[in-house]
Amino acid sequence: MVRFFGILIGLFFAGMLVYSFGRGAVDYVSNPPVKAVEYQFHEEPKDVSFKSDGPFGKFDNQQLQRGFQVYKEVCAACHSIRLVAFRNLTDLGYNEDEVKAIAANWPIETPDIDPATGEASTRPSIPADKFPKPFANDVAAAAANNNAIPPDLSLMTKAREGGAPYIYSLLTGYTDPPANLPEANRPGPGLHYNPYFANLNLAMAPPITGDDQVTYSDGTKATVSQMAQDVTAFLIWTAEPSLIKQKQTGWAVIAFLILATILGFLAYKSVWADLKAQKKQKDA
């Protein structure tokens, strides 16, 4: 009797499952979901590659220095890189004297405490300091940027879906809204249309406005695409400065594992060869 009721209960739940699935399929076919406007007009990141990509990729210090220059002259007025210290710039090929000069001449001084009065003050940065924030606090940042707080860029290429290609696409993706974009989704006051941004409109004005916005010391032509790619490469480095060392360590670990596997296999063959020989002698 218990088994009979158990079968009935199982058939009931199986029937409910089949009914729910069938009802859902019918509803989906008869009333297909309508894609949101943001989904219809949103574009996937552009197909762009960087020299640090792939298992054999390496940073190009010359490009990283150009990217740092773009950050300094274009982005630093609004965006911080609070996880990076001035002394880390030696990884980009700058020598100690150059790093000291960059820190001392940085437009924003480092917050400090006056030892005589105990009051808050500022001082010129030194290599050991992290890059100072461009605004004293979030209230000041929002007030200066149409109530939008500029995010820190230290980990931006790892924090955003799409990574570095997304950052590059966003920087080069500002355009006029298409004619068929609904009025409700058009950029309002202080907003700018960019199909690579999640909701199509963002408060940040185009940071890279045209060719030759910066002058590269190595003579590279500063096109919009070049500047966007260089500063994105720099942000790849800020997000993961030890990337190349990690790749090198990974290859060393793989080589060790391959060698250990070969040695283990040879040891296995040697041990079992002796055991097989002993077994044959006993059988004989």
Features:
two-stranded antiparallel sheet; extended; 284 residues; mainly alpha; 48% helix; Cytochrome Bc1 Complex, Chain D, domain 2
Question: What is the CATH topology assignment of the largest domain?
Answer: Cytochrome Bc1 Complex, Chain D, domain 2
Indicate the radius of gyration in whole angstroms.
30 Å
Order of helices and strands: HHHHEEHHHEEHH
Largest sheet: 2 strands, antiparallel
Q: Which class do the helix and strand fractions yield?
A: mainly alpha
* Quaternary form: single chain
Q: Mind explaining what this structure looks like?
A:
It is a single chain. This protein is 48% helix and 4% strand. The protein is mostly helical and 284 residues long. The protein folds into 3 domains: 32 residues; 133 residues, Cytochrome Bc1 Complex, Chain D, domain 2 (Orthogonal Bundle); 37 residues. The strands form 2 sheets. The chain has a two-stranded antiparallel sheet. A two-stranded antiparallel ribbon has the order 3-4. A hairpin with a 7-residue loop joins strand 3 and strand 4. Helix 3 crosses helix 8 and helix 7 packs antiparallel against helix 8. The longest helix is centred in the C-terminal third of the chain and has 41 residues.
Topology readout:
Layout: H1 2-30, H2 37-41, H3 61-75, H4 96-104, E1 110-113, E2 120-123, H5 138-144, H6 156-159, H7 163-172, E3 192-193, E4 201-202, H8 224-239, H9 243-283
Antiparallel strand pairs: 1-2, 3-4
Helix pairs in contact: 3-8, 7-8
